Amino acid sequence: MLWRIDATPGRSITWTLSWFLFIAGIAMYFYASHNRHLENPDDKVIPSLNQLAEGVENAFLKPDSEEAAPDELANASMATKFFTSMLWTDTVASAKRFLWAMLLLIPAVFLGLHMGMFPVIGELFLRFILFFDKIVALSVLPILFIAFGIDELSKIMLIVIGVTPTIILDTFNLTKSVPKEQIVKGFTLGAHDFGVTYRIVMKQILPRVLNSIRLNLKAVMLFLFAGEMIASQDGLAFRIALLRRHMGMNVIIPYVLWVALLLFLVDLGMKVANKRLHPWFREA
Amino acid sequence: MAKLIELEGIGVVYPVHGQAPKTVLAGLNLEIQRGEFIAVCGQTGCGKSTMLRLILGAEAPTSGRVLIEGEVLARPDRNRGYVPQKYSLFPDKTVLDNITFGPEMEEFNILGRMTPKFFRRRRELRETAHALLKQMGLDPMDAHKYPDQLSGGMQQRVAIAQALIMRPKILLMDEAFSALDPATRSGMQRLLRTLWAETGTTILFVTHNLHEALYLGTRVVVLGKQNSQGSSNVIADLSVPASSRNDDGQLRRDELDRLIHQVEQAGEPQLAEAYS
């Protein structure tokens, strides 16, 4: 009965099913780790629980070894230790780039909206953006490094080039999907071009645009990480790339989970904000 | 009565990819006087909605011209209210905000909407909106609901209130009641006739239902296919005088038979048959 398409699994079955793969994955990891450590107690490829705990402590509570001043922090509180830790320093560095990239998506939304509303703007940009969208962002990375240097700007530009065409085209399509009746209705209610654009169309598409940005968060992080891994002095991806050279899996794994947690929280924050800001919006 | 709308030799031809262009209307002439309640009727695809969009200014004719008070108007404006069948309300606004949207847009620009004057005016507009809701037979509790929390009939009532608050010279309704159940539809028809009698607004109501057209209109314009290319034109223009109605607004049987006979004679037996 459970395999039928009209099955309605109960709460306990739903809970078990939704957590099953997590539990199975963790169990398989520790089984593999245990077997490797039986053969080689110093194995670093699949760290044991103790090694992971040590890695977490190093990442979450100890500063980057190059900037370390261990004596000063010996008696500091856990919070102080965390906010001076390697992980936090890297998180702040990556977050700054991430926020800049997100801010630069705002003009992309406005461009897509105007392309959809004003045919002349649409004709001017559409073909170019469609072409631009097909360029593999990572393939222009060398050009960006040559043009903008290897500092912050090139990394932010990589994110912008990688994600903005998608956001522009998504916003354009969403604008076009607003029923013509709504636009005509706006005119009959005394609105002019910009009134219809901002007070009718933009308000209606905004929750869907936010969802589109949410779906592209992973792409933003992907380009951010690519930039940081290739040319950076700090950041989460820089650290992961650095630790890879030392086989520091016991720190890499907590870093990966931390990034996933951050991304989950940003996504959740946007979802909640979207719901609060647009109580009328019903997700399909 | 003064002429309000004139359609002069209207032709509408749509290009069809890979095929010959489709002629929807050809040489259509029609005059509408101020204060009339015109019901435009005809079978699916005869160009009723196209005609409405031309008067609305949402579409330009391929040939001929549309005059409103003697002037050619290029796009929809506040003088022509519009109630479509679907998407008649803004989904992101509450019932009250939907109704007050028009006057707010018209009277205040973006900076003006931050002044105390705007908030004072908004209070007045909300009172007007509440009065309109009452007139439409809606509960004040519905004022803060979003359109998707209302039934189809309630949505159309709000859409009419939204259009009427602008006091348009012409109210254009495109199959506005066709998605409603029979009981709601009948109630909406009565409401619309009452509103027309009270406000004197010129109404152009497009429907494919002859029953509805005969009940609502002071004049019923029947569009039908005229030639082998499928182009449409007016095939019957029937006057429905007030004297032909009973006290409840229904047509007398003899008058009804006469009008149906005229529609049959005009070459739309299917339309007439559906009613009789």
Give the rounded overall mean pLDDT of chain B.
88
Class of the largest domain in chain A in CATH?
Answer: Mainly Alpha
Strand pairing plus helix content of chain B: what structural class? alpha/beta
Using the CA coordinates, give the radius of gyration of chain A. Answer: 24 Å
Shape of chain A: globular
Do you know the CATH architecture of the largest domain in chain A? Orthogonal Bundle
Gap between N and C termini of chain B: 33 Å
The overall number of domains of chain A is 2
What is the tally of beta strands of chain A?
Answer: 0
CATH superfamily of the largest domain in chain B: P-loop containing nucleotide triphosphate hydrolases
Distance between the termini of chain A: 27 Å
How is the CATH topology of the largest domain in chain B named? Rossmann fold
CATH superfamily of the largest domain in chain A: MetI-like
| Helix-strand string of chain A | HHHHHHHHHHHHHH
Biggest sheet character of chain B: 6 strands, mixed
